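Can you give me the bound-state structure? Components:
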Amino acid sequence: MKLGVWKYIFTGLILAAIAVGLGISQSSDQKLHIIACDVGQGDATLITFESTQILIDGGPDLKILDCLGKYIPYWDRTIEAVILTHPQLDHYGGLIEVVGRYEVENLIANSLDSDADAYGQLKKEIMEKGIKVTNPNQDTLVRYGALYLDIVHPSREFIAQNSTFLESTSSDRVLGSYTTRADPNVFSIVAILSFGDFDGLFTGDITPEAIEEIIKSGQLKDVDFIKIPHHGSKNGLTSSLLEVTSPEISVISAGRNNRYGHPHQETLGLLRERNIQILRTDEVGDIEIVTDGKEIIVRGN
Amino acid sequence: MRFVVWALLLGLVFLRILASIPKYKEGQKIRISQKVTSEPVRYSYYQSLNLSGLRVYLPKYPEVLYGDEVLVEGTIEDGKLSDAVLLELRQGTGPLFLLRKKLVNFYESSLPQPFSGLVSGVTLGSKSGLSADFWERLKLTGTAHVVVASGMNVTLVAGFLVGVTCLFLPRRSAIPLAIAGVWGYSLLSGFDAPIIRAAVMGSVTFLAQAAGRLVSAWKALIFSALVMLLFWPSWVFDLGFILSFVATACLLLFEPRVKRFFRFLPEVIKEGFSTSLAAQIGVAPIIFVTFGQFNILSPAVNALVLWTVAPITIIAGVSGIVALIIPTLGRLTIYLVYPLAFWFVKVIEAFS
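Here's the bound-state model for the whole set.
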């Protein structure tokens, strides 16, 4: 009996030691990691720096959880900020699972509402968990240590001109309280991430017309990295955007053999013309970009 | 006398099966109102459940859970209920269903995927939380049986309960408690065919022990098959039911011999290797005919991972119960499961 008890304690201690060892080996390396998660046809980008995680969109379903499990140390259950670029299933579906399983400290959500059932489910989860929600505009600055995230679109004026405020007494508009007849894609949250000398542009599903507006606002600048808008669709990237931002590396998030034919040949052509490196989740799975603020390394899956 | 009892039981089962052959007509529109008695499977854009022997596909939300009560309307088509609409959903309120929900929630919020799915699968037979990619890999390596409501776990829990209660009580009084515990655990872990099979067999063996008699494993196995068919005659065509019995029968037939043959293997993996090899003799042909899948390495993979199942179940079970009382402490002890789950996942990834 005595021996049996000692055996259990000893096994427990060994397991604890291995758990600690694995925990340390997964801990971060003082570099910025941008991971375009392979979530099939959809969008989800994880940004990690030390113990800070920012997730931009969550893809359509549970698949995002595999990516988070792979790139966040197992003991870290907090995601500092989640950004929901716009209320379409291929961008928010997976977030329903994410907010249920992780502690999300801040949710930066598009100000449009949606009456889809799944969106209702997401709103319910967010209310139950009491997550802090912010609707951003061009003045919103998100900062975590050396990590800066500037929101460049949609501006307060853009929202006011293109959508209508929904009067509501109930709390069911926890995410957004505007509605629009226009394509929700034009409201996509667009942001620039800066870390040292590195700049990356995240574009959601932004469309050519909205891109013109953003360029006019004068907030764009030269970047190193771009997430191509709208899964590489024709109704996304424009040559003017590439001219203003002149990125070196581009990532396209699309599903293998998706029925929309994303990415479009024209989009790929625009990138090839300018010798921009193209990385596609439908070809290589998860894509990880690592930078210390100067050098950039790309790791495929 | 005994012969009469067996013959009677067999006759009853036969009648039940005949009477239960479904009388649905193609194209008939029906409504089904019932408690969901097995775990629904979740896909990317829909969920699938089994109601009155019919496969039903519903939109992904609202999520239907094992133990919920549903009212569904649809048209019979080809053994399926097509164009199914969920008219009503009442969440299960039984204490066991709530406990199960809480435990799964605890695993999912404490560990990342695919580890959380593995742990809730192994301890509670909850396959809804498994990631699709990991599930494919489990099937490829012939290890899916570990996370889908496995009878092995019931045996494990039964042994654990008897061991613990025997510390405080004489064996005779420990047995009723253990039987109650086994049935409680069966309900908790989804009440699928393999689990009930193990629970019936375990109860028969325990009762015989309490009565101071020996019962042959074969008798217990056949008895549990007949009892189960008496209650759920449609299971006669259920693959999980068939596989569970074939596997157990193969264990009884071949396991001692296989073990003797591989006596040179180290103790930790010998058990897993010999049980899975013995079970494969019967199971592999059925799987191959049904799914066209067969993995020659399956017994080796099983040998490498099966030894982790007992400690994962015990650590996760105990941590889950601790977490209900002191959440922080439970969160700490569940981390002890991580090295084991990590090993399990890495082995599966390496072989698939």
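A couple of observations. DSSP finds 15 helices and six strands in chain B. The interface with chain A takes residues 42, 44-45, 59-62, 108-116, 131-134, 311, 315, 335-340, 342 of chain B (CB under 8 Å).
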